[in-house]
Amino acid sequence: MLRQYELVERVKEYDPDADEAMLNRAYVYTVQKHGTQTRASGDPYFSHPVEVAGLMTDLKLDQETIATALLHDTVEDTLATIDDIERNFGVDVARLVDGVTKLSKIEQMPENERAAENLRKFLLAMSEDIRVLLVKLGDRLHNMRTLHFIKNPEKRQRIARETMDIYAPLAERIGLYEYMREMQMLAFEQLEPEAYNTITKRLDQIRSEDGGQVDAIALDMKHALAEAGITTEVSGREKHPYSIWRKMAERHVSFEQVTDIMAFRIICEDVADCYRALGVLHTTWQFLPGKFKDYISTPKNNGYRSLHTSLIYGKSMRVEVQIRTREMHRVNEFGFAAHWAYKQGNRPDGQVAWLRDLIEIVDASHDPEELLEHTRLAIYQDRIFAFTPKGALFQLPKGATPVDFAFAVHTDLGAQTVGAKINGRHMPLRTQLNNGDVVEIIKSAQADPQMSWLGFVVTGKARASIRRAVRLKERAEIAEIGKKLFDEIALRVPARIGKKALREALRRLEMEEEEDLYYAIGSAKISDRDVMEALVPGSTAELEDEPDWAKSGKALSIRGLTPGVGFRLAECCHPVPGDRIVGLRKPNEGVEVHTIDCHRLASGIDSDWLDLSWGKRSRGAVGRLRVTLYDRPGTLAEMAGIFAQNHVNVKSLEQIQLDYPFTTYEIDLEVQDVPHLTRILSALRASDSIAQAERV
User: Fold this and answer.
1) Which stretches make up the TGS domain (predicted)?
2) Distance (Å) of CA 508 to CA 192, 502, 532, 537, 641
3) CA angle (240 as vertex; 236, 241 as ends), nearest 5
């Protein structure tokens, strides 16, 4: 553990003007506050914040960050408060400590909610000052170094999984590759102990048998570059066990089949020498096509710059090579933290593009599971590059689609997307983008995000935005149904309902807005009787116990509402426009629409019915048919021809029975209305290839 004077000397080495008195006060304060507390290792608890502060000095961070590292656990684990921190160390340190501190109330939450709420607060604080993230990553790295002292294996696994899913990718996104690699290694050891031990033993065996092969290859490269007049530093190493394990998992190969387990780094004097060195390597050794990446001309979002290539050394050995300048290497290892060195005059704010996306996700996520899912998607690596028609560059995860691209450009553009051109050609929205694609988004002001997009989008921002838009639309449409029901309820009370009565009803029901009441009615969170009683107290005393739906004077129209949002067409009876329909209201759900003769209604289940009508211009629904064909060549094609002649789209076709000489299918068709479905049935029944056709 660093002594007090050693820590201060470290800071003074790179920042002679640092406030030595404040650093000393912070050191003494954390020692006093943590007192006799101990860690799982048996060490004094204050050794942890001191070691985290030491990590921050390695990054050459400013005195406020060092003080924050020393104090980051005092509010959470001692009697100290944020006000105490502000009074003793100033507003900036208090704000940073508060950003790193976990909310005390989340300790009583379920595990997933606690993790999500902690992450939510952390991301919001990080958006204001990136130093919050740097301290948090130092805190997590030191905790991972001492994780093996925790006796509970489940707790070790949970912390390791959280590190692998959240903190290692965050370190990668701000370019702290040293932190990322060490956290991945330590987490991998806990999550996959057998794989870790096996790979580590194999690496030890190779190291003992290769006779210094890594050094020999590095020397060969250095000589080849020196002969070309290029001054370089060349170093080599074996890849980390976790990196090898990932390659084994991705390629579905054994350890022996992973040929590129050696990696070399070449440090050049300037950018021109980097490209010259690349040329020398490619002319001296065979390079692997498709493995070259130029992150100098096109840096990663986190500022990472380097040339990457893979070579075949000797007859069959694959090696990876990174080529960069000394300054690139400094930034690549310390990433965003490199810009926070004390002598940097214009420090960047934390609002880099990916961080703004994370904050949008925090705002849009509905529950803990969504927040954790969307955040993991947003911070994972493996990126591709795509361009707008005007040449603007966007980085996206592998597997991203035009919808992901649209949301990356702007949330409003994603919401208005109706189509896309990729490299000048119209392509489906679910098409996966490739490196270098030029994407043009076709939009419409009348468009809305579709729930079906969740089946193919991969970015956290897109998923969060789609879910939020669908939720808002669902709420609005359920509230519209509730408004119609409210008008019917208001007619049944012995008074004329005006604005005053409605305001009083909202007060009695402890609701803020009229829409809250309409939504509660539409989603069956409140009964009609409760609404009547809130409008006119005592008005339900003499009412009979007949069902609420029976008192309605007319059918409610579902015209203008969106299937799957404000209402849902039941899959047990597949109603289509023209059918006589009723609706079932369920708590916290929209209205489920059934045909009047549906067997589910006859069972008496969910008797809170609404009398519904389709509205004058209702068009389009999925009807289900059961069709029995003669089992002979050409019959299926003839049925498909009948569908085509009647301009119907087949949503699904499933063979449900084979009983020679007959084959029976269940088919879902997109039809306009009952007459359209009836014409299709008539055409099927008239065919000699079809033994039977009926609606189900």
Assistant:
1) 382-443
2) 57, 10, 11, 10, 61
3) 140
Backbone angle region of 457, left / alpha / beta, with phi > 0 → left and psi within -120 to 50 → alpha: beta
What does the alpha-carbon distance between residue 115 and residue 365 come to, in Å, rounded to a whole number? 14
**In the structure encoding, which two tokens stand for residue 61, read together?**
């961070």
> Is the bond preceding residue 547 a cis peptide, omega within 30 degrees?
no
From residue 596, alpha-carbon distances to 191, 511, 574, 681 in Å are: 55, 35, 11, 21
Q: Determine contact, residues 562/623, Cβ cutoff 8 Å.
A: no
Instruction: Please list, residue by residue across 390-423, b when 16 or more beta carbons sit within 10 angstroms of its beta carbon and e when fewer do.
Output: eeeebbbbeebbbbbbbbbbebeebbbbeebebe
Q: What is the pLDDT of residues 491-515, one digit of tens each?
A: 888 778 888 888 888 888 889 888 8
Average pLDDT estimate for 204-230? 85
pLDDT confidence of residue 185: 94
Active site residues per annotation? 76-77
**CB–CB of 157/190 below 8 Å?**
yes
Distances (CA, A) of 158 to 120, 123, 162: 18, 20, 6
> How large a percentage of the chain has pLDDT more than 90?
32
The pLDDT assigned to 560 comes to 55
Q: pLDDT at residue 287 above 90?
A: no
Q: How far apart are alpha carbons 407 and 661 in whole angstroms?
A: 53
Band the pLDDT of 103: cuts 50, 70, 90: very low
Model confidence at 552: pLDDT above 50: no
Using DSSP, state whether 218 is helix, strand or coil.
helix
Average pLDDT over every residue of 57-75 = 92
Give the C-alpha separation, 516 to 1, whole Å.
Answer: 57
Residue 472 pLDDT > 60: yes
81, 76, 16, 73: which is closest to 50 by C-alpha?
A: 73
What is the separation, in whole angstroms, between the first and last Cα of the chain?
A: 75
Residue length of the chain: 696
Residue 415 CA to residue 457 CA, distance in Å, equals: 13
Show the tokens assigned to 679. 């014409």
Q: pTM of the entire structure?
A: 0.56
Whether residue 394 contacts residue 400, with contact meaning beta carbons closer than 8 Å, is answered with no
Q: Cα 423 vs. chain centroid, distance in angstroms?
A: 27
What's the rounded mean pLDDT across residues 472-501? 82
d(CA 313, CA 217): 8
State which H helix or E strand residue 642 sits in.
helix 635-645
Is there a contact between 82 and 37 (Cβ–Cβ < 8 Å)?
Answer: no
Which residue from 147, 149, 152, 247 is spatially nearest to 195, judged by alpha carbons?
A: 247
pLDDT for 578 equals 84
Return the biggest CA–CA distance within the chain.
Answer: 103
> Residues 372, 374, 378, 380: what is their CA dihedral angle, to the nearest 10 degrees?
60
- 526-554 burial, b for 16+ CB within 10 Å, e for fewer? bebebbbbbbbeebbeeeeeeebbeebee
Which is higher by pLDDT, 429 or 491? Answer: 429
∠ CA(99), CA(173), CA(170), 5° rounding? 45
Nearest to 63 by CA among 89, 85, 84: 89
More confident of the two residues 37 and 564: 37
Percentages (nearest 5) of helix, strand, coil residues in the chain = 50, 20, 30
pLDDT band at 551 (very low <50, low <70, confident <90, very high): very low
Nearest CA among 185, 134, 167 for reference residue 380? 167
